[in-house]
TrEMBL record:
InterPro entries: PH-like_dom_sf, PH_domain, PLEKHB1/2. This is Pleckstrin homology domain containing B1. It is found in: Membrane. GO terms for biological process: regulation of cell differentiation. It comes from Anas zonorhyncha. GO terms for cellular component: membrane. Gene3D superfamilies: Pleckstrin-homology domain (PH domain)/Phosphotyrosine-binding domain (PTB).
Length: 164
């Protein structure tokens, strides 16, 4: 999946409200992963922006969050989640906070496109039989390319791919 943005952000813990510095990686499919450091060996957590994020706020819009010591309010980001919780983050600078907000909104709104088929047969569902008034339609497995709907009529007794 395509990388949108990566970098250091401060993340506020949900229970003790302490700030911890993490390496964040945002992918175009909406996955926001955060790690202990840049090696990306130890993942500390994951958010799926497309499904769980309702809004992204920065700076003064983050009313009830105090930034980490030495950081200004303009560096704050708040991810408002669909379950009414929020994740508070803090960027290294105001410009970086704006860049993260734009990247998060891009990942949230960009439709995920699947790669083109590789001409590898996959099992799909087709039907044998006629429509209304004819014999009952029975599902059979037929080879299809990914993302292609197969509706093939097979004569009685002919097995589809993967059928015994």
């Amino acid at each position: 999946m395509a990388l949108v943005k990566s970098g250091w952000l401060w993340r506020q813990s949900s229970i003790l409200r302490r700030w911890k510095r993490n390496w964040f990686v945002l992918y175009l499919d909406g996955s926001l992963l955060y790690y202990h450091d840049q090696t990306q060996r130890d993942m500390d957590g994951r958010l799926h922006i497309k499904h769980s994020c309702r809004d992204v706020r920065i700076g003064p819009e983050c009313r009830d969050v105090q930034p980490p010591e030495g950081k200004s309010r303009e560096c704050l980001l708040s991810l408002v989640l669909r379950d009414a919780s929020k994740t508070s983050l803090c960027a290294e600078s105001e410009d970086d906070a704006v860049a993260w907000k734009l990247a998060l909104l891009e990942a949230k709104s960009t439709p995920v496109r699947l790669p083109p088929p590789q001409n590898i047969p996959q099992k799909g569902v087709g039907y044998w039989g006629r429509g209304s008034g004819g014999p009952k339609r029975s599902p059979v497995n037929v080879g299809v390319s990914p993302g292609v709907w197969a509706d093939r009529c097979l004569p009685h007794g002919v097995k589809g791919v993967g059928q015994s």
